[in-house]
Amino acid sequence: MRVISNLIEAHIFREKDSEIEFLLLKRAPYQYYPNLWQMVSGKIKDDEKAYETALREIKEETGLIPEKIWIAPNINSFYSPDDEYISLIPVFAAKVAFDSDVKISSEHIEYKWLRPNDAKNLLAWEGQRKSVDIITEYFFHRKSFLNFVEIKIS
């Protein structure tokens, strides 16, 4: 069995008046996992670092450019029985301006800004829901001992 890491997950959030909302995207019916609600995700190209993929995928899938981006202290994973591998997925948190204009790509058919519990209710996988909790706790409850590393973007 192989262990690979060729995907990223980027949770986009915005804040206003001490409230946080996460952006979720609904996959198009012709996509793998049709009509599934998800955060931004994508495949790392050979010449990219994982955070570069996150920034590229955020722009491609939403038209957004984050104000700041962090490495979230969580690695999601899944097992593929067809190809017999385990995939490890780095998680990123990206903050955008509250009034940002979302322009979804053809990969998606709808988007929603949701409070953490509502976002978690739409996400399919436990690891994704855990990422929402970790990001919310870190940025809004300040009870976390986890360390988010900010990536400097220009």
TrEMBL record:
Domain of life: Bacteria
Coiled coil: none
Residue span, Nudix hydrolase domain: 1-136
Signal peptide residues on this chain, from the entry's feature table: none
Entries under InterPro entries matching the protein: NUDIX_hydrolase-like_dom_sf (IPR015797), NUDIX_hydrolase_CS (IPR020084), NUDIX_hydrolase_dom (IPR000086), Nudix_hydrolase_domain (IPR051325)
Family matches, as SUPFAM superfamilies: Nudix
GO BP term, example: ATP biosynthetic process
Keywords of the record: Hydrolase
Classification via PANTHER family: BIS(5'-NUCLEOSYL)-TETRAPHOSPHATASE [ASYMMETRICAL], DIADENOSINE 5,5-P1,P4-TETRAPHOSPHATE PYROPHOSPHOHYDROLASE MUTT
Protein name according to UniProt: dATP pyrophosphohydrolase
A molecular function GO annotation: bis(5'-nucleosyl)-tetraphosphatase (asymmetrical) activity
Pfam assignment, any one: NUDIX
